[in-house]
Amino acid sequence: MSAGLEACDVPLAEAYDLALVDLDGVAYQGHLPIDHAAASLGTARDAGLQLLFVTNNASREPEEVSGQLTDLDIPTSPDEVMTAAQACASLLSTRLEPGARVLVVGGRGLVTAVREVGFEVVGSADDAPDAVAQGFAPELGWADLAEAAYAVAAGAWHVASNRDMSLPTARGFAPGNGALVAAVVAATGIEPDSAGKPSPTMYRLAVDRVGAERPLVIGDRLDTDLAGARAAGYAGLHVLTGVSSARDAVLAEPGLRPHFVGADLRSLLEPHEAPSREGGWWRCGDRAARVVDGRLELDDQGPAGIDVVRAACAAAWSAVDDGEQVAADSVPELTV
């Protein structure tokens, strides 16, 4: 796939056979619904698109996630949820035999996932674990991280469910699993393997689970959801309802760029026009953008909206790919 925005002349829900949907920032916001999410996902399902919800959260059980989605009018069964805990357990299975000892530093979801694939869960580095599986749980403390460090330093394989440095909460962003993993790395000097996004492992496991041929990743974070899509070789839709903004998309480096950009999940039900170059301008719909002397310029005609975001992405990405630097202070916050 190219590193630019792509065209799709039919609704995305018709062009792809599986949507790998992120949770927080896409399907819901914390414990609250996101406008148009439930209705758009329902319409996409009715059109034949399979949905599989993929989350870097390793502390929750699939049944808990599916229950929350169902309560928000997105009917979901547990087998339509893929957690980073399940991906972590699957990654452990690539090197460890059933019955191997695993020190789990994380929540219930990770404990369950590790046990379900046949490993013995132990509680201390003194139990000589073969591996340490580390995932986020709000109750984790220094003693848990110390046990992980002792085990890794003694030779246990360190596998992180994900390395997200932050996670959204009702009060703002708090330290995520990546921050806790970093503490173990600082103590041991040993870098772990990671199962969650942006590693492609979880996406590929999800695709294999349903036998999909044309998967579409839908996410709000460029550094995890969309970077994972690029790493896996899958198309990615960036919706602007969560962490990464339209401005972030314009400034994204090639490995983080989405293939499609939409204001919200209604964009799953629409065709997508790819920007085209006309002279020095990149045009999409009624809007256009260009880069002159390293600075992004937008035309002053037409409405605000997603077309100006797409045009700006095309102009900035093209300039960067041609070896030019785009000044970050020339890229405004873009409203949709």
From TrEMBL:
Superkingdom of the organism of origin? Bacteria
Domain spans labelled GCN5-related N-acetyltransferase-like: 284-329
Keywords of the record: Hydrolase
Question: Which SUPFAM superfamilies does the annotation name?
Answer: HAD-like
> What InterPro entries does the entry give?
GNAT-like, HAD-like_sf, HAD-SF_hydro_IA, HAD-SF_hydro_IIA, HAD_sf
What is an example of a Pfam family matching this protein?
Answer: Hydrolase_6
Q: Name one GO molecular function term.
A: phosphatase activity
A GO cellular component annotation in the UniProt record = cytoplasm
Q: What is this protein called?
A: HAD-IIA family hydrolase
Q: Which organism is it from?
A: Isoptericola sediminis
